[in-house]
Amino acid sequence: MSTQAEAKPIPHPTPDEQPYWDGAEVGFLRLQHCAACKKPRHYPQLVCPYCYSCECEWVDATGRGTVHSWTVAHHAFHPAFKDELPYTLVTVDLAEGPRALGRLDPSAQAELRIGLPVRVTFPRNAEGTSLPVFLLDDDA
Amino acid sequence: MSLRGRGAITGIGETRYSKRSPHTAFELQIQASLAAIADAGLDPKEIDGIIPIGITGAPAEAFVTNFGIPDLRFSALSPMGGASGIGAVQIAIAAIEAGLCKHVLIPAGRNVSSGAKAGVRIHQMPQFHLVTEYELPQGAIAPAQLYAPMARRHMELYGTTSLQFAEVAVTMRAHALLNDNAVMTKPITIEDHQASRMIADPFRLLDCSLESDGGAALVVSSSVRARDMPHPCVQVLGIAEGHPDSPSSITQRGDLTRLGIAKAAPIAFEMAGVSHSDIDVAEIYDCFTYIVMCQLEDMGFCKKGEGGSFVEGGRLRLGGPLPTNTHGGLLSQGHMLGINHIVELVRQLRHAGGRAQVAGAEIGLVTGYGDMGDGAMAIMQRG
After folding, report:
1. CA-CA distance, B249 to B241, in Å (whole number)?
2. Quick one: pLDDT band at residue B120, thresholds 50, 70, 90?
3. Residue environment code for B23-52, b if the CB has 16+ CB neighbours within 10 A, otherwise e
4. Do B361 and B348 touch, CB atoms closer than 8 A?
5. pLDDT band at A4 (very low <50, low <70, confident <90, very high)
6. pLDDT tens-digit profile of B317-358?
């Protein structure tokens, strides 16, 4: 229908959120850890929900985890995603505890199940955003 | 202090629901509000509290101006998406009981055909910030895509099937066919559901609610006053709202299969002093088929994981043990943010349910579900 390619939505990080995206750009899933009680959390937030410290450190996660759930998108609710249909979004239990949402690499589709070991990569899309894509974790 | 039996829904009003209305959202809100106020036997100038619903809800000031309301004493918001309607009723009863005001108008109305679809609208809402920042750029955009992993997890853990989702869809459609104000007018079968195209696996097209234009409104008053008003009193016996764990991100929620209503339901049932078997009719928020069965579990009608088998065998149909969404719901009547569910429960308990009337209905419940799992429920009684 449209001949003009529509751009995908891009993140608009606040300064507090920027370290996550800086990590993504160099291929790491960077998580907030509370500077006081050391517990990791995701997505980024201002306060530690366990000890209420506002101080945090950013630590690169292993990038490994297991599939918690998923959906396969067959309908594009935004025109920029139409050419990628169908694509799979996986909810992943990270080894560190919090979860991440990412695309599942099509090479892992046939194996998809709860508990499937996966590891993250951060390819850059046409908009210049580095986003998590999970591959089978052969070393798990 | 308990709100048990203190408040009543004294006025209900709806416009026609349609796929495309020539009227603006505000016009639809005004039309529905005038109908609800007239239904309550009031003059618009007697409204002294207003709680607008949803991001399309006009501010209270717009109603003050248009109705010439001389002394608005109370206004508030309940920002819980499809749970906002019941949240607003709870706020209204508390405000009336506290003596802040007498008659609260709860107006809703939308014209979505002229504007943004749900996948765009939600990202304008601050409670969706984390989704917008971290998930939208990946193509996780619309409610269907955000809620689908909850349903998939339920299916994988408990063996819930798409055929069980179909039971819900087919039941809602059968009920809509009895409703002269339903957008969907053709029957569907289980096979139609299974043949409908996949939207966000496991949700097929017929698992998804409608996008509708229209308006709906309520008037809330004290139960004492309600007994002197035109219609049989429909009083609120129990009411509560509940917020899920990780309300800003489904991805981070410990238990993907547990919604906010799991926290609200025990409070509402205890306040009402009734049990599940006392419920004659249920109006359960049905943005997606799966969300109906998940709420049934979370409210304790069955155990977690048994929602799929619970909805089988016509249990939710008129004539079944728990007639549900007698108006056709968001899936087949129209999507009016669940205000249409509250309107329908009041109609049932007034015994004005037309062809979908549950004979002798005395006690019923209505639920709301919104944003990423906010929940609310109310138990109402005739008399």
Report:
1. 18
2. confident
3. bbbbbbbbbbbbbbbebbebebebbbbbbb
4. yes
5. low
6. 999 999 999 999 999 999 999 999 999 999 999 999 999 999
A5 pLDDT exceeds 80? no
Q: Is the peptide bond before B126 cis (omega within 30 degrees of 0)?
A: no
Size of the A and B interface in Cβ pairs below 8 Å: 102
Q: Number of folded domains in chain A?
A: 1
Q: Which residues of B touch A73 (CB under 8 A)?
A: 139, 145, 200-201
B202-239 pLDDT, tens digit per residue, is: 999 999 999 999 999 999 999 999 999 999 999 999 99
B197-208, pLDDT tens digit by residue? 999 999 999 999
Give the CATH number of the domain where residue A23 resides. Answer: 2.40.50.840
In chain B, the residue whose alpha carbon lies closest to the alpha carbon of A104 is: B138
Asked if the Cβ–Cβ distance from A77 to B152 is below 8 Å, we say: no
Tokens read off for B83: 């749970």
Whether residue A76 is contained in a domain is answered as yes
Q: Rounded mean pLDDT of chain A?
A: 95
Domains of chain B, earliest start first: 7-114+210-382 (3.40.47.10)
Q: Are the beta carbons of A74 and B252 separated by less than 8 Å?
A: no
CA–CA min distance B347, chain A (Å): 36
Residues of chain A neighbouring B123 (CB-CB closer than 8 A): 9
